[in-house]
What we know:
9-stranded antiparallel β-sheet
Amino acid sequence: MDVVHAAEMPWGESLVAQRGSYDMAHKRLFEGAEDSPDNYMLVMSKEPKSYFSPRHRHPWDQIRFCLEGKIPIAKGLFVEGGEIAYFPESAYYGPQEGGEDRIVVLLQFGGASGQGFIGPDRVTRARLELAKEGRFEGGVYVRDTTQGRRNRDAYEAIWLHVMRGDLSYAPPVYKTPIVMRPEALPWVRAGAEGASLKSIGVFPHRGLSINSWKIEPGACHRLSAVRALRLLFVTEGSGTIAAEALRRWSAVRLQHGEGAELRATSRLELLELSVGSVIDLKQNT
């Protein structure tokens, strides 16, 4: 188990400089293993409304939880404060333009196709290498050749560079991003007195589930061990997990097979993102 306190971490550099957005800032919370189909990255993102990204798609999955502000994901469609969006592998979205300044919890992880996810350090190296032969502008990588101007989505260009020209998109299981509104769901008692749950979304093809937990002051709840990576993010209150302190914007990582006890000192609310192993899912099909 690992615990970090995001509210006390400094904002770091933009991890999406390939989109031309250097005024964005990130906090890197947890990361997986490169070259694994289960690689992932959990970050907090501070995004200005000036950020722009063209319509595009990814060969991996992502989840965005809007803490504050308003995220544009298509013309006239936003993920607003308190809402959660799932961006499935291969599903188009965008353009991202306008909205409001926002703070977002972002999880990106390898999709069901098993192609994995490229971590931020490799993305940065690839961007700097590609910049020697072209330029990134407006979310696009541009090269001027003897045959004329050649454009490629910025992230696609990086993926092709890292993966040595190998890029394929699996047929999308869902045609569009899915925006969830947890406030519309009731709390349901779960386990011990004082513990409540909202089951927000379940996406079995990727072994993904999205839940919210509420633990009342003085109450506790045992998270049983499961065969999945679980990432918890505290949105309100204080308490402990396995004797480790929790407070607003604390993040917890429970690895496959790890359980832990949550205990609240003030009313504790957490988002739980649970992601199964691509290898395990393929073995079970």
